[in-house]
Amino acid sequence: MPVFQYATDDEIKSGETTDVYFLRTREILKAKGLDRVKVVVEVTTGHLPNGWSWGVLCGIEEVAHLLEGCPVDVDVLPEGTVFHSQDMRGIRIPVMVIRGAYSDFAVLDTALLGLVCQASGIATASARIKKIAGDRLILSFGVRRMHPAISPMIDRSAYIGGCDRVSCVLAAKRLGVEPSGTMPHTLVILFGDQVKAWKAFDEVVSKDVPRVALVDTYYDEKAETLMAAEALGDRLWGVRLDTPGSRRGSIEDIIREVRWELGVRGYGHVKIIVSGGLNEESVRSLSEAGADGFGVGTWISDAPTVDFSFDIVEVEGRGPSAKRGKYGGRKDVWRCSGCFADLVTPSGQPPPKCPNCGLRMSPMLEPLIRNGKVVAKLPKPGEIRKRVLNQVAKVQL
């Protein structure tokens, strides 16, 4: 019995994390001779959280591993696709289509949705923050607020969405990047002296790690910033103000003041990194005030999930079959490269022209699995991240 509350790979793939009614459904289908009936299932969402106009699809690699070996065919929007919940006519856009005997994959419904709902929410929040920040540095600092078992998923999703760096050691290792972080307040407090703590960091930590001094433990941020500059000189890469969530007053004015004082003393190269309770609004205002980077925590790691649903749209022998509020039948999804508009059509129709600009639209769904075998190339996170940022540049918040 694990001492921490998480499910193993085998427990997830075997369906032990499912909602019990799927086990009962499978039992009934087998008893009534319907367990080999084939269906078409779509994964869609009717709307995105917080009024978001677009999302970033994430978690597809884990879905591939979840369904690998299961006798199904799966088509998906590639991981990292910037997607809309509905097409230009208000039709739900399938981000994934599964074909096979329902009993073969019914117990994986719960896990599959969990993999894409949470990861896509985190990736979307990260992409939105990065779009606001532009070229400024964004670090994922939120794993400490979430269950440690999912830390790699959180930072992978945040990185794919646009975060430049991540703090979790294991996540960074799996991503093939160096983990990023400066120092906690506990280091300064244990030394009882800011300067001693900064100098100890400089003396002990590898020279490859940028010297970023935490400058709000005891004194005013400006005072500690100048102390750090005097203590480390040209070796000081940046200062971190962990201030917005814990101090009263205008952090924008503090940033402007710190930037001014560094500049007039010959330390204009020193970066100002801000962390602590940041969100989209604060990142926008602090960017305008002159901050060079942000450590964003809970706003990304605890992002609202994308409420994808898993619905049968076609049943073997009966054709299109969908619950009320959903659109029956297998579908194709098309995108216009010119205006980024999407269109859903019944499957098998020729490529349409975009109603907006007249360009021939391109198909979006691509094969992921064929008869239980993963047939798609699963790109590295860095490749997915580049794709996300290229698409995000074409859309508005």
| CATH-defined superfamily of the largest domain | nicotinate phosphoribosyltransferase
Unreliable stretches covering 5 or more consecutive residues: none
The percent range for strand residues is 15-25%
Tell me what the CATH architecture of the largest domain is: Alpha-Beta Barrel
Principal-axes shape call: elongated
Number of strands: 18
| Total separate domains | 2
Major beta-sheet overview: 7 strands, antiparallel
Could you name the CATH class of the largest domain? Alpha Beta
> Can you list the strand order of the major beta sheet?
13-12-1-5-3-17-18
What is the CA-based Rg, rounded? 25 Å
Q: Pairing-aware structural class of the strands and helices?
A: alpha/beta
Number of helices: 14
Mean pLDDT: 96
Helix content: 25-40%
Outline:
By secondary structure, the chain is an alpha/beta fold. It has helices at residues 9-13, 20-31, 60-67, 102-105, 109-133, 151-161, 169-175, 185-191, 194-204, 221-232, 251-264, 280-289, 298-301, 381-392; strands at residues 38-44, 55-56, 73-76, 82-83, 96-101, 137-140, 165-166, 211-214, 236-241, 271-275, 293-296, 309-315, 319-320, 331-335, 342-346, 362-363, 366-370, 373-374. Strands 13-12-1-5-3-17-18 form a seven-stranded antiparallel beta sheet. It has a six-stranded parallel beta sheet with strand order 7-6-11-10-9-8. It has a three-stranded antiparallel beta sheet with strand order 15-14-16, with no helix packed on it.
